[in-house]
Amino acid sequence: MIDEPRALETLRAEAPLFADVIVPRHFAGPFTYLIPTPLRPVLRIGHLVFVPFGRSLVQGAVIALTAHHPPTLPLERLKAIRTLATPDGASDIPPPLLRLSKAVAEAYVAPWGQCLRLVLPPKSRTVDSNRIILTKEGQEALKAKEPASSQRQLTPLDHEWQARVDQALEARRPARLLMQADPAERLRWLRSATAKTMQLGRKVLVIAGETARAESLAAALADSGSVTAVLHSMMSDKKRAAVWDRIRRNDVSVVVGTRAAVFVPLHPLGLIWVDREEDPALKEPKEPRYHARDVAWMRANDEQALLVLSSAHLSLETCGLEPPASVLKSSHRPEALPQIEVVDLRRVDRSTLLSPRLQEAIGDAITRRTGVLLFLNRKAYAGALVCQDCGQIPRCTSCAVALAFSRQKSLLFCHYCGAAGAIPDLCAACGSARLQPVGQGTERVEEEVRRRFPSARVLRVDGESMRRPKEAESIWTRIRRREWDVLVGTQILLREDAVPPVGVAGAVQADAGLSFPDFRAAERTFHLLEDAASLVQPMSNGGRFLIQSYLPTHYVIEAVARQEEAIFTSEELKHRKALGFPPVIRMIVLHISGALEPIVEEAAQVWAAALSRAAQATPECADVTIFGPVQSPVARIRKRYRRQILIKSHPDSKAVQAIRSTLTDLESAYARRKVKFDVDVDPIDMW
Question: Residue 12: is its pLDDT beyond 50?
Answer without folding.
Answer: no
